[in-house]
Design goal:
336 residues; alpha/beta; seven-stranded mixed beta sheet; 12 helices; 20% strand
Length: 336
């Protein structure tokens, strides 16, 4: 295992994908000489040249539109959206073209496009730099939506996304770019867990805590704190938001009988709502209490000085755990 940051693991994944297949080309703002705002593509221009690492104009719709044309011609484009809040100018291209062309042409046209998005908050950034737009894309049929949480998963899942014939929205938690972990750079990609498979990060018996992205770290902190109080929390990293691995989720819920789902995005019509609805359909007779959500608030992402009040934290998660367990001093009423 090689110790590296999540950001370096993503760069290693891009490099290996480009070595494996010369049809892989990268497009994005400042990804060439600069190596991207977060330096994920650092060094790739020198190794692969300007025809495969393409610095684009500041025009997200044009970037994704160009990727659609490249996919038509047999390439496997990888697009970098510089920040999460910058994806909206490309929204029409993604939902009207990228997500639909394979279906519209009855399989004759494939769209093997990977759209990388540095995503979510926790870095004290300005407006439009800390958003969580995943629900828009989960709702869009025809897209795979992936959210990674650690260097090993980032390396493997990015390579799998690029090799897939499906269009993939690939969310990278920017506040974890510098977090380190072990990565097996030599393991065959065929031996890696499927891209859509959820992962049980921590086994437990009392409550199932479901999350993804940077919130996996927060969930693990909450599970450790709960363990000190005699409560056993099973933490599940969804990894794939579309499709969701409901078999793994349901297996955990049938064991614990209690569910909390947490994410940074706003509560209304978020991923947590869909996950809870699907769990209820599949596991109703196993549930000992109503599942709860712990999410960001239904406001535009706040200024940097206020984001700590917006992001779900250990205390809010443990409050929801108390409620599903009907423990003393738990709150009543609306979801957290």
């Amino acid at each position: 295992m090689t110790e590296m940051t999540l950001g370096k693991a993503l760069g290693a994944g891009l490099r290996q994908a480009m070595r494996d297949d010369d049809r892989v080309v990268l497009l994005g703002e400042d990804i060439g000489k600069l190596g991207g705002v977060f330096r994920i593509t650092d060094g790739l221009l020198d190794e692969f040249g300007a025809k495969r690492v393409i610095d684009t104009p500041l025009a997200e719709s044009g970037i994704v539109g160009t990727a659609v044309g490249l996919a038509f011609r047999g390439y496997r484009p990888v697009v970098e959206i510089q920040f999460d809040g910058f994806v909206y100018p490309a929204f029409d291209q993604i939902v009207a073209q990228v997500a639909k062309l394979h279906y519209r042409t009855q399989g004759r046209v494939k769209m093997p496009i990977t759209i990388r998005i540095p995503w979510a908050g926790g870095i004290g950034a300005a407006e439009h730099h800390s958003e969580s737009p995943e629900a828009y894309f989960v709702h869009t049929a025809g897209l795979r939506v992936i959210a990674v949480s650690n260097p090993e998963d980032a390396y493997r899942s990015l390579r799998q996304a690029i090799a897939s014939d499906d269009p993939v929205i690939f969310f990278e938690p920017k506040r974890l770019y510098h977090h380190k972990g072990g990565v097996d750079l030599d393991a065959p990609l065929a031996d890696a867990p499927p891209m859509g498979l959820a992962r049980v990060v921590r086994a437990g018996t009392d409550v199932t805590l479901i999350t993804y992205g940077a919130m996996v770290s927060t969930a693990m902190e909450a599970a450790q704190a709960a363990d000190d109080e005699g409560v056993s929390i099973e933490v599940i990293d969804l990894r794939s938001l579309s499709p969701v691995d409901y078999d793994s989720v349901a297996a955990s819920v049938r064991k614990t009988g209690r569910v909390v789902v947490t994410h940074e995005a706003s509560r209304e019509a978020g991923v947590a709502a869909e996950v809870i609805a699907s769990i209820t359909e599949r596991c109703f007779e196993y549930l000992e209490s109503a599942p709860l959500r712990v999410t960001g608030h239904d406001v535009p992402y706040p200024p940097a000085k206020l984001e700590k009040y917006h992001l779900p934290d250990l205390d809010r998660i443990l409050e929801a755990v108390d409620r599903v367990l009907d423990r003393p001093n738990s709150l009543t009423g609306a979801d957290a």
